[in-house]
Each structure stands twice: as C-alpha cells, then as structure tokens.
Amino acid sequence: MYAKCGDIIDSRKVFDYLPERNVVTWNAMIGEYLRNKDTNSASILFEKMSIRNAVTWNEMIDGFAKGGDIGIARQLFNRVPHELRNVVTWTVMVDGYTSNGKMEAAREVFEDMPHRNFYAWSSMISGYCKKGDVNEAKAIFDQIPVRNLVNWNSLISGYAQNGFCIEAMEMFGQMQAEGFTPDEVTIVSVLSACSQLGLLDAGKEIHCMIHRKKIWVNVFVLSGLVDMYAKCGDLINARLVFERMTERNTTCWNAIISGFATHGQCKEALEFFDRMESSNKRPDDITFLSVLSACAHGGLVNEGTEIFSKMEKYGLEASVRHYGCLVDLLGRAGRLREAYDLVKRMPMKPNDTVWTAMLGACWIHQDKDMTEKIVKESAQNVNMVTATDSHYVLLSHIYAAWDSWEKAERMRTVMDNKGLQKTPGCSLIMPGSTKNTFCVDAR
Asked: Among 118, 251, 356, 397, which has the highest number of CB atoms less than 10 A from its own CB?
C-alpha cells in the first residue's frame, strides 16, 4: 500500500519491521525499488535473499533492462537457474533488448527460446519497427504460427509510425477478414494512417465502427479522431469531437491547434492555444511549432514574437525549427532586416530550411540586395553542401524573375551536378481497394 502510494520510505520501514518475510514480500519490495529506478537498493535486497523464485529473477532482469543497463540484465539472465527460467524470463530478456534497440542480441535470444508466447513475437515486431525495418518486422509476423490481436496491432502500429500507411490499412482489412475485431489500440493506429493519407471517408467509416462495435473510447482514440478530422480538413467534426471530450491530453490540444493552423484558420488556432494555457495542460515543443506556423501564415507578427518568448516560461528550449518559424514570420511580413538579424543571433547554425525561408521572403518582397547577402552568407554555411532541391529551385526562380538568366541556369546546373531533382507534387486516389498516384513535376 505504501509503495503503490509512492511512499517508498514507509514501505521499507514496514518491510524491515516484519518478524518473518516470505519470497512474495521480498519480491514486492524489490519490485518497488526497481519501479523507482533505485537499482542499487534492489540489488542489495536481491543478494540478501535466501530463496528466489522465477518472479524474483524476472523482476530484476526487467528492472535493469528498463533502466537502460542491459548488460547487468543479461548477466542476471545468465544466472537464472535452469528450473526457474520459464517463457516469461526469456520474453523479458527479448523485450529488454528490443526496448533498448539491440535487435541483433534480441534476435539471438529469440531464436534460442524453447517456447515463444505472443508477447515475444510482438516485442520483436515492435523492435524492428522502432528501428525502421518494417520488412523484417513483416517477416517475423509471417512466421507466427497462431496470431492474436496484439500481434496484428504491433504490425499495424509499426507500419503507421513509419509512414507505411497504405500497408497499415491493408493489414487492417486483412486482420478483419481473418475474423479479428479491432480494439482501441488498432483504432488509434489506423486513424493515424488515415490522417497521414488524408483519407477522410475511411476515417469516418472507422468512427462509425467505433460506435457500431462498441470499442472502448479513451482519450487516445478521441485524440486520434481529432487529429484525423483536422488533418483531413474537416474542422467542424474535429471541433465537435474535441468539445465533447471530458479529458484532453497534450496530443489532443496539439492536433486541434495544428489542424486550424494548417488550414489557414490562424485566429482560431491562437484561441485554442489560449484555452490550452488556461487549462491544466502545458504546451510542448510541438504546440509552439504549430502556433508559430499559424502566426507566420496569418501575418500575426506581434502575436508570434510574444508566443515565441513564452517558451522560456514553460522551460522549453527553442530549436532551429522554432527559430525557422519566427524567421518565416518576420520575412513574410516584410521585416527582412529583423529576420536576418535573428538568423545571425540564433544559438545554433541555421539550416537549409531557415535559409530557404529567408530566400522566400526576399522573392516575395523583391529585395535584391538582401538576396545577394543571403546567397553569400548561406554559401559559407556547411549546410549548403547538403542543401535541398527547394533551395536551388527558389534561387533559380528569383534570378529568372530578375531576368538574370545566366544565374538561373547556373542553379539548374548545380542541381544536376549534385544529383538533385525537384520533388514532384503527388496526389493519392484510392477508389475501392485500388490505389493510384498522380505526380506533377512543375519546372
């Protein structure tokens, strides 16, 4: 009771006063130390134990693995008596490796397992997905002799998190075809896939499925619905879902703010930001990126600079992306000198995005002198070595607008020499189950 209420000191006092202790008591105390990241105290108790059971070893291995000390976790695993090393022990070791990104070691232990449970399979799938190796994750999935919902969720979630959203939707369909009913974990993943693909109709079908199949609606499902509707441009439904929520997390606030900001509803985005500040949820890095982006697109210079200054109030350190938003805001408003001075004052080196924002502002306001200064400044920056196609295309357009055709052609030549190609604009259309992608390369 003391431990679960967070009072580890009184918990230990009761433990010390006990006239007799059994293995369950020892395990409870060790487990609580490990959950509080106190591996030293847990180790001292562990070594004092005269009798240990499988739970004792599993707790210790899991505790050290979650604390990032995978070496000690493996040493403990190797010490487990043969008769106590059960399928949970093996699974805890596999999960320890996958959680720490050690997939080769995880695969080695996984292959040596005498028996595998569904959690071990899912841990391997999730581990490969976290590393971005979705092909290997799918290969593991295909080897599962009997799959359950957790296995399906691991793969679908992994696909969605790595941007393989079409594959996530295909697996979602296949899962249902094989007789599995989705749960709230599945729903969150497929809503994410819908939002990334902009599949509003599919997202609405999933919303109906939630009610039809009576799927448990928690804050993560509702946040997923807000995010899906917002990213797909249906701000009315996004707001309806949001306003009906009794509990809102930071992800949900970010989704609604970002949705309004992305679709040009800048004042509404700022209103939601004000409401978030008035609530018990603190804005994070993503919140500020969304709000600063809204200010940039809405030309709200005073509001943007004031919001940028609030980051320090919340203990947040501005990244190059936040500075890039502020540069873009000042540049769009025609305050190029202020934007340039900000670039020079940044505590980190400006990246290609920052320079491109400056060039974009120069193009909009036809400031030839500032353009030449930016070109000279950015050419001396190491980031120019890896500048993106947009940087050179923008320069080419600027020079062409000034009838400086020789310089414009030189930018095209630089692109060719660097092997850069202009990224084509693409649209995805999915009539029925057939997907078609149309691309336009506008030069």
From this structure: 356
